[in-house]
Structure formats: C-alpha cells, structure tokens
C-alpha cells in the first residue's frame, strides 16, 4: 500500500515538471557541448516583446516618444526628469515653512518688477489680481507666500513670451531660499516635439500652479492644477454662463460636438486622428482640420482635404451653444482651451485626456459636472453619453454654470481660488468642506474664519435639510414690544459726547452702545462680538418704522436668510448717453437695491464686508461718508446672484428730513446724490461687472388689501398706515 502511494507521488511530481517545462516556466541548463560564444550570443537577444493593442493608460511624456528614446542618452533622460521636479517628493509638511503664516496670517508678497524684464499681459493680470486681493502685503517680512515677478507662464522655448536665463535670475533672488514658500504659475511647458513638463529651471521646493499637469508629476496637497486660459480671458468679472433657462428635457440640437486641430504627427495625435470614426454629421459632429502650421501640406494625409472642407461648414459657437456634450480631447498638452469654453456654454465636457490632473481637483468634484472618458475607448463615447439620464444631464449642466461663475470666469477668480486652496492647507483647522466648495455660492464667498459649520452661513439651509426657523432667532431682535429682539446695539459715530445713562429710554432688552473708533461709515458693518444672533435689523438714526412693519419683515427674512429684506428700495440703470451706470430713487415697480437704513440681513455679511472687500472700496466709502449701503447691496447680490426683497411699507416713509429736526438731511444734498452715482461705477469696476439684479417682486401680508374682515388679517395695522 505504501509503495503504491510512493509511486503516485513520484508520478504526480514528474507530470508537474513536464508541464512546467512545456510552458517555459523552467529552463534546463545548457548542455556541455554548447560553446561560450553561443551562450553570449543568446544573452544579447532581446526579451520577447508582447504587443499590446491598447495604449498605456497614462499620459504621454517625453520618455514615451520614439524620437526621444532614439536620440536621447540615459544620462540626458535622468537629468531631464530630475531637473523638472527635483523636489517631486515635496509636501506641505516637508517643503513649506508654516511659522510666518501662523505669526502674521496668510499674506502674499509679489516681488517688485525687475528692470528690463518683459511681462506678458496674462501674467500681469495674475500679479494684479494678487496685489488687489486681501492677501497682498508689500512687506516681505510679513509674507507667508512669495510670487515671482519674473514671467514663468510660457516656458516653450519657441514662444516669443519665453524668458531666457530664468535659472540664473531666480537663483539670484534674495528671498528665493531654494523656492521654499514660493508659488510659480505656469500655463505652457516644454516644446516641440515632446512638450514635456520641464520648466527649464530648477523650481527647488516651490509649489506649482500649473495648467496641463499630469497626475504622475502632480504633487498632491502641494501643487495646484489650474485651467489653461487664453490671453483674452478677462482679468475681473467675466461673462456669465450661457444657460439662461432649464429646458426639460435638457437636450439640444447636437448630442456631442468638437471642432479643433488634428495633429498628423507627434504627441497628442492619436485621439484626434481617430475622431472621424465617431463622426456621423447628424447628432455627433466631430470636426478636425490639419490646415495649421507652416508646413502642414508636407505632412497632409489622404483625409486632410475632406476634413478641411467639412470643418469649414460649421460655426464653432453655434455648435457649442447647441450641444448637450462637448468633447475635450487632449492636444499637444493634456489641457485644452475647450474645457473652459464648454463649461461656460453649459455644454457638459467629455474629457479624453488620460492622466490629466483636472483643474482644482483638490476641491472640485468633477464627477458632478463632467464625463471623464478613456482615450482608448473612444468608440464607446457616443453610447455612453446617450445612456445618461435626462435628470443627470440637467444636473451636470447646472453644475457647469456654478463652477464657471464661481472659479473660472476671470483670471482673478482662478488666482483667488489658487490662493484660497493654499490658505486652507496652511490653516487646516479652519479649512472649507467639500460642500462649501461644490455648492452655491462657492468657497470664495464662504470664509472659514467665520465658522467651520455650514449651518452658521445663510446659504446652506436647504442643502443641509434644515429650515431657518425662528427658534434660534427668538434671540434676534426685540425693540420695545416685539417678541423677537434680544438686544439693541447703538453705534455712536457722532463727534458729540455720549448722553448720560439716565437719558436713554427704558427698554425691556439690553441696550449696548459702541463708540466708533474712527467715526467712519464702514464701522456699521464691523462684525462686533456683541452680535450673537443670525438676523440683524439695520436702522438709520432717522428711520421710523412701526412694530408691525418690523414683525412682518422679520417673518419674510426667515424664509430668505441669504438676502437683504427691507423697505426703502432703489434702482440702477445704464445711461447710454454718458456710458456709465446711473442711480435713481424714483418710486417705481422696479428695484435692485434695498437700503440698509431699514433692512434685515444675516450677520455673516458683516464678516464678509469687513474681511472680503478690498481696503480701497471701504476707504472710498469712509472718505465720502456715503455709499456703504450700496456697497453692501453689491456684495450680497454678487454672492447670491439674487435681488433683494422689498416688503410692504407705509407710503409716508420719506428720507427728506432727519427726525423732527428742521435741518435738511443728507438725502436732500445734490452732492450726495452725485457721489452715489460715482460709487455705482467704481463698485461695478471692482466687481468686474454689474452684480445688481432687477426685481418687481414685493411681498405683502396674506389678505393684504383684500375685501375681507380686518379681523381675519394678522398684520392689519399695516393697511392703516
């Protein structure tokens, strides 16, 4: 029995060895008769090559190109890799000094321009955006982050914007410190034929804010991926998105479109050369042309003439605005201008650029606004986009509009988003959540210094599934006989001394008097610590409102906590003769502002007014002693993209007299009105456009003016005023 078991074991082992030998898993030693020459010749043979019909699922780089491998030595390849990102292992905890940031706050210093150095318009827009922001400091000793005045945007050696000898110039900067705490902006790197990501100088430990950066070279939570934008991209403001209304179902004339260059040779040519396989000239229109460059005819193929003729038949903007999806294939580099163009047009981007680190990927959830495809699966793209549910398409299009207007519509927003991302890393305890970045109004208007909890802001009640009830607002405002007031705050900006305590009227709630330190207009919007409620009722000294009016206005505000809700309304208009914005106080059915002399708004806007707006605008308000209410309306409308809300008021409300005094108020001064005209245009210039929105809505109490018994009406006294 034991002999039989041994026989089976030996037989099994022999069968296994024979199988391994047949499959090539075991190589028997060469016979003694094989010569040394035969063995050496066999060792020179290359390893067997197994062809893969699919391209690699990683971005093209210069070491992947045939020309690079043929003409570049291993030493040159090594030097190219190390020079591009010598600090590729850098992270915030290893290559960034937090001490200055914690000591002085997040301040950014821009090097003064060097004599004789040319700066492109795009880079000048970046520097101007930084210098006009609340982060800027002219004192390098106070700075947490440093930005070069040397133009690093275009590092293509064939470009006229290329700055020579940048390596030496950067190393000679007195504050360079191997790039530590420095931020370098770049849009184009490398040149023909490889278009690598080498900037041509050693960036050391500096952070990169770079377009078309690959995931392989991107250093997470250290670099920032920015979008590729053209030199025509506006510095401030920018156009709104093109989605004017939500069509149901959300389909357009075309399902999928693209119109752009086709590269006949070199990097980035594969995907665009294959687009004709998907083009059907009906709902999928993918057009390419090879007619670009000086010597395109030398390389033209059999399809060039046909493609060029088809290309000229279609208008690009008409396609863009009438398509549900827009293809965004890679070009010579990973990024493309098509990306931002599709976002603005509410055309859902279908990204085909394997290995591209999408712009602001650290904070933006691109799955909510784009379709990310695979270059190797191009033929499946039409089927994929057709399978997306109409509800999902509508959601994607709406998110494209939010992201465009929040982060990409101007150079200033791109720059500020970059700085805010870095600030969140520096101040981790006060960083924004993903919800803040990916929902209205966006991270630029949700300052984490105010609160880390979304419920403290006036924007997120619906998103969080919470209603803004009166429970926490019962501690809000309570003049003498109202049930909602918690305290009365008097800001004493008068040059006269404070009245004696016994001269103040008796109230059922505390009266807190704050003396303005500088006696300036902007002090009324300082976020005083004594303001502990969400709702703030702002009143001028000459405003007269009944308790019933205040009660009703507060009830309306509870339903619209993100807006200004109040009584005195004003409007703006465009004066075509003077080509400037005008201001009017005429009583009409149209308004765009509710003055803060008698209005409710959320206390967060105190924080935003003080910490978000630049010093230049607030200084202008203080010097004129005017326009602070207009500036607050500009700010709130810019944040919410909504008009204020006017509520019912008594017709006798006038602003021509100050209290019972016979002395005329500032509203009767013609210079006061002219100043407000000037303010309108100055504010519009800083915001990059006119954020105010006209409205014809007025909210009245239920049964207001209805022919029913007065006993059935809650706010019956309003009709008697």
UniProtKB/TrEMBL annotation:
<feature type="region of interest" description="Disordered">
    <location>
        <begin position="33"/>
        <end position="54"/>
    </location>
</feature>
<dbReference type="InterPro" id="IPR029044">
    <property type="entry name" value="Nucleotide-diphossugar_trans"/>
</dbReference>
<keyword id="KW-1133">Transmembrane helix</keyword>
<comment type="pathway">
    <text>Protein modification; protein glycosylation.</text>
</comment>
<dbReference type="GO" id="GO:0050508">
    <property type="term" value="F:glucuronosyl-N-acetylglucosaminyl-proteoglycan 4-alpha-N-acetylglucosaminyltransferase activity"/>
</dbReference>
<feature type="domain" description="Exostosin GT47">
    <location>
        <begin position="104"/>
        <end position="388"/>
    </location>
</feature>
<dbReference type="InterPro" id="IPR004263">
    <property type="entry name" value="Exostosin"/>
</dbReference>
<dbReference type="GO" id="GO:0005794">
    <property type="term" value="C:Golgi apparatus"/>
</dbReference>
<dbReference type="InterPro" id="IPR015338">
    <property type="entry name" value="GT64_dom"/>
</dbReference>
<dbReference type="GO" id="GO:0005789">
    <property type="term" value="C:endoplasmic reticulum membrane"/>
</dbReference>
<dbReference type="GO" id="GO:0015012">
    <property type="term" value="P:heparan sulfate proteoglycan biosynthetic process"/>
</dbReference>
<feature type="domain" description="Glycosyl transferase 64">
    <location>
        <begin position="480"/>
        <end position="704"/>
    </location>
</feature>
<dbReference type="InterPro" id="IPR040911">
    <property type="entry name" value="Exostosin_GT47"/>
</dbReference>
<dbReference type="Pfam" id="PF03016">
    <property type="entry name" value="Exostosin_GT47"/>
</dbReference>
<keyword id="KW-0325">Glycoprotein</keyword>
<dbReference type="Pfam" id="PF09258">
    <property type="entry name" value="Glyco_transf_64"/>
</dbReference>
<keyword id="KW-0328">Glycosyltransferase</keyword>
<comment type="similarity">
    <text>Belongs to the glycosyltransferase 47 family.</text>
</comment>
<keyword id="KW-0464">Manganese</keyword>
<dbReference type="GO" id="GO:0001503">
    <property type="term" value="P:ossification"/>
</dbReference>
<dbReference type="GO" id="GO:0050509">
    <property type="term" value="F:N-acetylglucosaminyl-proteoglycan 4-beta-glucuronosyltransferase activity"/>
</dbReference>
<protein>
    <submittedName>
        <fullName>Exostosin glycosyltransferase 1b</fullName>
    </submittedName>
</protein>
<keyword id="KW-1015">Disulfide bond</keyword>
<dbReference type="GO" id="GO:0046872">
    <property type="term" value="F:metal ion binding"/>
</dbReference>
<keyword id="KW-0808">Transferase</keyword>
<keyword id="KW-0812">Transmembrane</keyword>
<comment type="function">
    <text>Glycosyltransferase required for the biosynthesis of heparan-sulfate.</text>
</comment>
<keyword id="KW-0479">Metal-binding</keyword>
<keyword id="KW-0256">Endoplasmic reticulum</keyword>
<keyword id="KW-0735">Signal-anchor</keyword>
<keyword id="KW-0472">Membrane</keyword>
């Amino acid at each position: 029995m034991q002999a039989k078991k041994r026989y089976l074991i030996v037989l099994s082992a022999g069968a296994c060895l024979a199988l391994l030998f047949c499959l090539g898993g075991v190589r028997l030693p060469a016979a003694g008769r094989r010569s040394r020459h035969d063995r050496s010749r066999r060792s020179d043979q290359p390893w067997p090559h197994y062809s893969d019909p699919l391209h690699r699922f990683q971005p093209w780089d210069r070491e992947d190109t045939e020309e690079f491998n043929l003409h570049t030595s291993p030493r040159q390849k090594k030097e190219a890799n190390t020079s591009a990102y010598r600090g590729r292992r850098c992270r915030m905890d290893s290559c960034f000094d937090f001490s200055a940031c914690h000591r002085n706050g997040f301040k950014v210093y821009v090097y003064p321009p060097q004599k004789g150095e040319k700066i492109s318009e795009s880079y000048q827009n970046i520097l101007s955006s930084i210098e006009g922001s609340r982060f800027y400091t002219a004192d390098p000793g106070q700075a947490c982050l440093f930005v070069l005045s040397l133009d690093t945007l275009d590092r293509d050696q064939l470009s006229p914007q290329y700055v020579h000898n940048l390596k030496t110039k950067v190393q000679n900067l007195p504050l360079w410190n191997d790039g530590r705490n420095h931020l370098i902006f770049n849009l184009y790197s490398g040149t023909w034929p490889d278009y690598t990501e080498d900037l041509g100088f050693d960036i050391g430990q500096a952070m990169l804010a770079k377009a078309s950066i690959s995931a392989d070279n991107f250093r997470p939570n250290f670099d920032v991926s920015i979008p590729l934008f053209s030199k025509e991209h506006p510095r401030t403001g920018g156009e709104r998105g093109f989605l004017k209304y939500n069509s149901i179902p959300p389909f357009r004339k075309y399902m999928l479109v693209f119109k752009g260059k086709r590269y006949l040779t070199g990097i980035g040519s594969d995907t665009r050369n294959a687009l004709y396989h998907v083009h059907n000239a009906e709902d999928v229109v993918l057009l390419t042309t090879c007619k670009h460059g000086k010597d395109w005819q030398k390389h033209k193929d059999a399809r060039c003439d046909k493609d060029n003729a088809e290309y000229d038949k279609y208008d690009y903007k008409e396609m863009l605005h009438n398509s549900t999806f827009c293809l965004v294939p890679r070009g010579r580099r990973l990024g493309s201008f098509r990306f931002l163009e599709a976002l603005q047009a509410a055309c859902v981007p279908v990204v085909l650029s394997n290995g591209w680190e999408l712009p602001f990927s650290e904070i933006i959830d691109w799955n909510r606004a784009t379709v990310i495809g695979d270059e190797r699966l191009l033929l499946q793209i039409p089927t994929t986009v057709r399978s997306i549910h109409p509800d999902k398409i509508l959601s994607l299009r709406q998110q494209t509009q939010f992201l465009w207007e929040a982060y990409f519509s101007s150079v200033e927003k791109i720059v500020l988003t970059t700085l805010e991302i870095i600030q969140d890393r520096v101040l981790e305890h006060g960083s924004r959540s993903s919800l803040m970045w990916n929902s209205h109004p966006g991270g630029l208007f949700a300052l984490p210094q105010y609160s880390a909890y979304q419920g403290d802001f006036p924007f997120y009640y619906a998103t969080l599934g919470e209603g803004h009830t009166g429970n926490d607002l019962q501690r809000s405002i309570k003049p003498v006989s109202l049930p909602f007031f918690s305290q009365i705050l008097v800001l004493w900006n008068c040059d006269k001394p404070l009245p004696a305590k016994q001269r103040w009227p008796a109230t059922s709630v505390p009266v807190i008097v704050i003396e303005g330190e500088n006696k300036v207009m902007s002090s009324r919007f300082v976020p005083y610590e004594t303001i502990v409620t969400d709702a703030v009722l702002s009143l001028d000294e000459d405003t007269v409102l009944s308790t019933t009016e205040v009660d009703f206005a507060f009830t309306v505000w509870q339903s619209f906590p993100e807006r200004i809700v109040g009584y005195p309304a004003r409007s703006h208009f465009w004066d075509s003769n003077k080509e400037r914005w005008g201001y009017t106080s005429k009583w009409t059915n149209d308004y765009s502002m509710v003055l803060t002399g008698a209005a409710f708004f959320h206390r967060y806007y105190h924080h935003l007014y003080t910490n978000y707006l630049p010093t230049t605008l607030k200084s202008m308000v203080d010097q004129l002693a005017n326009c602070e209410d207009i500036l607050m309306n500009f700010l709130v409308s810019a944040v919410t993209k909504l008009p204020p809300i006017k509520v019912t008021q008594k017709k006798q409300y006038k602003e021509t007299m100050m209290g019972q005094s016979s002395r005329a108020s500032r509203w009767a001064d013609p210079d006061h009105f002219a100043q407000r005209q000037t303010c309108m245009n100055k504010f519009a210039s800083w915001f990059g456009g006119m954020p105010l929105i006209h409205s014809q809505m007025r909210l009245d109490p239920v049964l207001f003016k209805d022919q029913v018994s007065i006993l059935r009406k809650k706010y019956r006294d309003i009709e008697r005023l």
